[in-house]
Design a protein that fits this description.
Blueprint (H helix, E strand, L loop, with lengths): L5 E6 L2 E6 L1 E4 L6 E4 L5 E5 L4 E6 L4 E6 L12 E6 L6 E6 L4 E5 L8 E5 L6 E6 L6 E6 L3 E6 L5 E6 L5 E6 L6 E6 L3 E6 L8 E4 L5 E6 L6 E6 L3 E6 L6 E7 L4 E6 L6 E6 L6 E5 L8 E3 L6 E8 L2 E9 L3 E6 L6 H4 L4 E4 L5 E6 L38 E6 L9 H9 L7 H14 L3 H14 L7 H9 L21 H5 L39 E3 L9 E3 L32 H9 L5 H8 L26 H13 L3 H11 L1 H4 L4 H17 L3 H9 L4 H4 L47 E3 L6 E3 H10 L15
Antiparallel strand pairs: 1-2, 3-30, 4-5, 5-6, 6-7, 8-9, 9-10, 10-11, 12-13, 13-14, 14-15, 16-17, 17-18, 18-19, 20-21, 21-22, 22-23, 24-25, 25-26, 26-27, 28-29, 29-30, 31-32, 32-33, 34-35, 36-37
Amino acid sequence: MEKMSRVTTALGGSALTGRTMHCHLDAPANAISVCRDAAQVVVAGRSIFKIYAIEEEQFVEKLNLRVGRKPSLNLSCADVVWHQMDENLLATAATNGVVVTWNLGRPSRNKQDQLFTEHKRTVNKVCFHPTEAHVLLSGSQDGFMKCFDLRRKDSVSTFSGQSESVRDVQFSIRDYFTFASTFENGNVQLWDIRRPDRCERMFTAHNGPVFCCDWHPEDRGWLATGGRDKMVKVWDMTTPRAKEMHCVQTIASVARVKWRPECRHHLATCSMMVDHNIYVWDVRRPFVPAAMFEEHRDVTTGIAWRHPHDPCFLLSGSKDSTLCQHLFRDASQPVERANPEGLCYGLFGDVAFAAKDSLVAAESGRKPYAGDRRHPIFFKRKLDPAEPFSGLASSALSVFETEPGGGSMSWFVDTAERYALAGRPLAELCDHNAKVARELGRNQVAQTWTMLRIIYCSPGLVSSASLNHSVGKGSSCGLPLINSFNLKDMTPGLGSETRLDRSKGDTRSDTVLLDSSATLITNEDNEETEGSDVPADYLLGDVEGEEDELYPLDPEHVHPEEPEYVLPQEAFPLRHEILDTPSGPEHLQDKADSPHVSGSEADAASLAPVDSFSLLSISHALYDSRLPPDFFSVLVCDMLRFYAEQGDVQMAVSVLIVLGERVRKDIDEQTQEHWYTSYIDLLQRFCLWNVSNEVVKLSTSRAVSCLNQASTTLHVNCSHCKRPMSSRGWVCDRCHRCASMCAVCHHVVKGLFVWCQGCSHGGHLQHIMKWLEGSSHCPAGCGHLCEYS
């Protein structure tokens, strides 16, 4: 969408006018360049090479330089530059290694002037000398830079960087003979065109390839570089050694960097991938861009300020096949949306909190923060680089000191060192870890381990037949509890459906009705059972009759005829003594429905035996009816996510390792990897290297389990001949002696080996420790004073 604001800039009698606008190209652009009068722009790419006039309202195509019926690789451009002294002179870098110059003053349709075919690979960059009309410099993927004199047909100088491919070359604006070049290996080189044999200076600027560079138009020694490490660095080249003055952190690889005219600390950047926006940075504020242009929908490949003395207009080309003119006034300013709040922990446990001045009210009695707790060092105050931005967004800083011991993480270290994650049965692991958590005062974690043991560790199953047999003998083993049922709540067909077939001795769970409110808890002494309506003095047994009856445990109170039941006072608070027992279900129904009957009497009536069918039926044993562990998988996964969201990744990772495949399939791989890497990072912060390695080794995530397989190469020299050992065995290839002999017991060390870095002698860890307790001399007899700490 085009924005309608316009700007007019006076430049030495001429005026630049325009607005934010764009035009659609025939193909993606790889590079752009502006002529010296800021009235035209050339766009070059793999399938496009055109010149557009920049008018006040739009771009107008003026010339198409791709002429001829057959496409030529010479026209496939990786870079283009317009000479700033001769408005008719252009140069392009072709992908086939050819450097082509173009003369727009030629009367024919074909404007091609000269071809230089000395490079063997793609030419990445071409650059004209700022004051010399006939000097052209190129940098290629073959690692060479060549200087061409346009009055001759071949190069006059070849510069070898003795490195990988050259990504950018730029002549210095202030030093006539100096140019800078950037390389794939992260180096930046400064050359004198009069000395092609060696560079004047070389330094490592970035961690990875350096894609671009640009000399400051005003400050003589300032060089800006951008690389794949997502950084833009400003170097002072006037010092004996290159000095890094500023570093801007971006969010993607930096493909282009251009200083903003008339603004000493501003530069524009665009990314090579991922990020489509163009940013203008103030190098004194390296984390928040001063302006941002968001018009492109694909990667921006080329940027150029329209005039070397105008900071308002920026031109850009993109892979989305658009050419844009950006007005600085229309750019969005991220600093206006920046969050001025921040929170950070200090080295000594202090918490620093920054918020807007308007949100932080002045509190009386607040002590000023003492700052650094080290001994004071007096030095001259440096200027704060953020002072120019104090009016844009300012924050008030508050520092809170923690109570002594309040931020202690000793529980984390103790838990990590004492937890058992493998090598035992699951039940023992859960019990051990629950005990550790309970001793450290983490009761919720201990309860979680106990619940996991109950869910995943099945006890021995007990059959209902043996259970009833033990009851008949007066055994006190735990039984599942069932509730009583009122007669009025039952359907007429309930008796036949719930009767157990004792002749066959089989029980079915689908014919057993249980009250959901019954609590399945057994007491070891069998004195009282919670959650059941049945008195604790009574149990259900088997008889030879057809009905199920309620029998007392005490055989002395068993009556051969119609018994009289008395409910214990501790079970039901009776209002009066029950003297008679109803004889039929009709009487029970009437009495239970009578408004004159109390609740206790109705409950007592429901417990009486009947002739027609059983009121109570025995259910399955507790362990027969247990749910499978897979039933709780969703609950266990929710529990792990709960601990992870609370910041306790230690618990989440420990449960993942202990349960293994039981829960691994229910949690996505990316989440597991995030938990593992967070926990390993915490362990390494506390220097718990052994625990960290154990977690990596036991990891259920493939991406984590290979962490201890990288960068673990140990280069060992023979203790006798001092030559490097091969990785084929324990015997030195040169002296044919076993290099890892223990100096105390004179046996080969095949496990943990400790050696002195001074004399290279060593042996078993325990042997060396014991030896050095009584003597400080080397046990090998070399006379060296060894020390073990």
